[in-house]
Target: Rhodanese-like domain protein
Amino acid sequence: MFAFRNAFRSREMTAAEAVAKTATGELVLIDIRDGSELAASGKARGALHVPMAAFGMRCDPRSPERLPELGSGKPIAVYCASGARSGMAKGMLKRFGYEDVHNIGGLAHWQRAGGPVERA
Model:
C-alpha cells in the first residue's frame, strides 16, 4: 500500500533543474530568507526575495500585493538557508492554489548545482 501511494506523489525538482529552468526563464524562483541572510550571503541570480514575514501578502492570489510573476503559470521553486522554511513556504503556496511548486532546499544546494549568486 505504501509504494502505491508514493507512485502518485509529484517528484521534487532538483536544485540543478531549478538552475537550468531559472536561466531560461521557465521558473519563478523565490528566496524566503530574511534581509540579513541575503546581506550576508547574497541570493540566487534571478530569485525574487519574499521573506517569510511578507510571504502571505506577496504570494496569496487574493492579495492586491501579490507578485505579478506568480500569475505567469510557470512552476515555482522556493529555497531558504537549509530547506526547512522553504518546505513551509511550499505548503503555503499549495494552500493558496499553486500546483507546480517545489522546495529545492537551501542556497548551498543552489550553489552546489552550479547556480550563480548575486550580492547587493
